Fold this protein.
Amino acid sequence: MDTMGLESLMNIDAVNEFLAGTRDYGNLPQLQVELYLNEQNNSDLNGKNNSDGVECDGLVLRCVPIDDYSPQIEAVLKEAEASFPFEYYSIKFVTFSGEPYRGPRRYLHHLLLDGASINNEYATREYVKSVYRATAEDGEQHKHKNEYRNHKKSFRDNVLKDINARLDNYKFSIITNTRSNLEADLTLTEDDISIDNKGKRKQCFIKTEFALQKKKSSHPLDVLLLEEPENHLSHTNMKRLVTSIAHAEDQQMIVTTHNSMISTRLDLRNAILLNSSSADAGTLADLSSDTSDFFMKAPDNNVLEFVLSGRVILVEGDAEYILMEALFKLVTGNELDATDIHVISVGGTSFKRYMELARLLDVRTAVIRDNDSNYQAKCVDNYEEYVTNNIRVFSENDDAITTFEISVYQNNKAICDELFSGGKIKLPPQDYMLNNKTTAAMRLLTEKADELTVPEYIKEAAQWIIA
């Protein structure tokens, strides 16, 4: 708290709204954060000192103006260019019983493992210290520290005895202050090699696996916090790490990640989604088990890309994906990168899975797919229960125009005949495009992107998604 500063925690909209208003002292915004705990069997934690007014266990962080400084605060607020009086706020921790909370009393044993700073010396030292405290039995820490200090004293009195005898006014000794104690000197080793001398990837594994081990301790870890565990890991090693996390026992884990594999393999129904375009957190707790299982097993998925996008265009093939940005620009005059619209290629069989996500999170989604010779059955009836005001399916309604390639050819015959005829090409242009979808799409993109006529159903999708 002291290092972050209150200005980093207070809601900026609340601050700006107050400064733009009458700036009355009584209306100064306050910050309150509550941590609800499972039953801890500790009377100091239990009470109704929370916003719900219910009796339970927990802790409260309160940041409120200090009344003793009200004259100074009011003077600051009367200035023409008033700044917010962060410096006149108190920061207090109390329990739900109303008792002050002080650091030495630990109601919850936790460990933070930050993949971004995995090899930072301070982070490593704090990690080892936290694991040691969580592993040592009651009274064991005090015994270790006492014996360690005695060993230092013995080293001074015996090993340094001869060299000190040759000195007059000054003597060599061993530092024994709080910055040079047992916890400061401890490290973890593997095959007698300290983790400080391991690579970042190895440090990730040593630290995470050590933390995930089931400890027989009087103070086991209650909560393990993993910050972006994917850092420094290859795809294969990340799968191994996810497996370790998924099979951990007797620990509550909170994992923050930008990686789709981690979020899906650990069951999307446990995910809380934070999107910078929304002030509210999304949850997938109501996602069907079939869809959650699908994303856990899917070889490639773009779940986080989907849920973190403002609007999404879903296509079923590489050709559509390759050309969609160019077609979108022809219709709207806008670059896709300048919008909050994201294009994702998901394959035709996966549309319903993503549409379920879209319905749950209210993400505006346009599905662009082939009609496969039956527009009514494949594109209308098939998605009847998924289509909403914010989710629509777009396709050619002529059953004879079965695929994206046929539609592009029918709308751009002259261009396609020019590009896909002669030379080594023996097939008719349309057949060549159907048999070489990605190659044909790349040539259209690189050679004729600005000259294409956009199929009507794709034009409708682009206009609808941007509206």
In short: The chain has a mean pLDDT of 85. Residues 6-95 form one domain.
